[in-house]
Design goal:
This is chitinase. Belongs to the glycosyl hydrolase 18 family. Keywords: Glycosidase, Hydrolase. Its EC number is 3.2.1.14. InterPro entries: Chitinase_II/V-like_cat, GH, Glyco_hydro18_cat, Glyco_hydro_18_chit_AS, Glycosyl_Hydrlase18_Chitinase. This protein is α/β, with parallel strands linked by helices. The chain has one domain: TIM Barrel (Alpha-Beta Barrel), CATH 3.20.20. The protein is 25% helix and 15% strand. The protein has nine helices and twelve strands. The strands form three sheets. It has an eight-stranded parallel sheet with strand order 8-7-6-5-4-3-10-9. It is globular. The two termini are 34 Å apart.
């Protein structure tokens, strides 16, 4: 506290106290119970200060950061197929904020995974262009891995270096865990992988960089009952709590998987209490998206027993259209889901899709409802721009 005493002949003694409060803005930690960051301080207006050139300045509090901005995420690959395009990374619709490269993969247990694009040079050039447009590019680890994604405790450093080598070669921003199959029952492998990622994230933090960690679990692996028995993502969630940036569950390829409807939502939506809305129910696709999102974020459902994820770290993952996977998005379903979530004040981070290659296609496809329909190029991106891109989640 400063005290300034001023004596004047015609005035009585007055003391004034000027109090300056200095607050240290701590880096926000990514965890499920995310605490609100402290308010950045303003320098004394009478004493201009220049920021340390080696210390990044705090962003404008009104400017969204990668920890609170709306997100459109798409998976990309180069092997092609029907109803899709072999789109170059450099030609991706720039409405996409994050691109996940598929896949960092191994076909044999206890062997290090590798990323082998058809044209590495083209991929590197595409990544550079995306970075020039302020996009993030991650490597997705796994896919339909089955038994393959398994690592021993003594392989942690090797796995860490393998990941870092790929990240460095392609100048990527992080890693997405997309394990599927029985490898998710291997707790040792999950722990080894988690520890390797934690060490990378902490190393980058010391260098004032952020290493992004995300996950793409299939729905059956999100039940709390799976933690101690069988395949589960919960060990990943708990080990990486405070380190992962967001979770984008796959609301597709569930093969008749879906939530039981609790009484409150049954009344709201005109559904039967205890009925099941599956991802194969094309007529109730929006209800499926809404119920799964609600029961995975803000409401514990005794009928379902899902593990709860902070909505600020939750991205709804939908297949682009019916050829891309069962449980596919369509314009009506995305818009209705957005309105239902908005009505219930459930603010999630945005949308993810499998895959960009399908969204880049234009032509007649199998319909999400009946028969055939014409799919316009970048439809999924446009549905996002009309809905989740507009929500205020700060």
């Amino acid at each position: 506290m400063k005290k300034i005493l001023t004596s004047l002949a015609s005035m009585t003694l007055t003391s004034c106290s000027l109090i300056y409060t200095i607050s240290c803005d701590s880096n926000e930690k990514d965890n499920q119970n995310q605490s609100k960051p402290e308010t950045p301080t303003n320098p004394d207006p009478e004493t201009p200060t220049n920021p340390d050139p080696e210390t990044p300045t705090n962003p404008d509090p009104e400017t969204p950061t990668w920890n609170n901005k709306n997100l459109l995420i798409g998976y990309w690959y180069d092997w092609g197929g029907t109803y899709q395009e072999k789109v170059k990374l450099s030609d991706i619709n720039l409405s996409y904020d994050v691109v996940n490269l598929s896949f960092l993969y191994t076909s044999k247990s206890y062997e290090m995974p590798s990323f082998s694009p058809v044209n590495p040079t083209e991929v590197k050039e595409g990544v550079k262009k995306l970075h020039q447009n302020n996009k993030k590019v991650l490597i997705s680890m796994g896919g339909q891995t089955g038994e393959a994604m398994r690592f021993r405790e003594d392989q942690k450093d090797n796995l860490k270096n393998t990941i870092l080598n790929v990240i460095k070669e392609y100048e990527l921003d992080g890693l997405d865990i997309d394990w599927e199959g029985s490898c998710l029952a291997d707790r040792i492998s999950q722990n080894v992988t988690s520890q390797a990622l934690i060490e990378i994230k902490e190393q980058w933090k010391k260098e004032n960089k952020e290493f992004f960690i995300t996950m793409a679990p299939e729905l059956p692996y999100l039940k709390t009952s799976t933690e101690n028995s069988g395949g589960s993502y919960i060990p990943f969630f708990k080990k990486l709590d405070g380190y992962y940036n967001w979770i984008n569950p796959q609301f597709y390829n569930g093969w008749a998987f879906g939530p039981y409807v609790e009484q409150e939502e049954a009344s709201e939506l005109g559904l039967g209490y205890g009925s099941v809305i599956t991802n194969d129910d094309k007529e109730k696709r929006a209800e499926f998206y809404y119920l799964m999102t609600k029961y995975l974020t803000i409401k514990h459902s005794n009928l379902n027993g899902f593990y709860l994820i902070d909505p600020n770290k939750f991205v709804l993952g939908a297949s682009t259209n019916e050829p891309a996977g069962r449980g596919a998005a369509n314009e009506i379903a995305i818009k209705r889901t957005y309105e239902l979530l908005k009505k219930n004040n459930i603010k999630i981070r945005g949308l993810m899709t499998w895959a960009l290659n399908y969204d880049a296609y234009e032509g007649e496809i199998d319909s999400t409802l009946n028969g055939k329909e014409y799919f316009k190029k970048w439809s999924f991106a446009n549905w996002y721009l009309q809905t989740f891109a507009n929500q205020n989640i700060k």
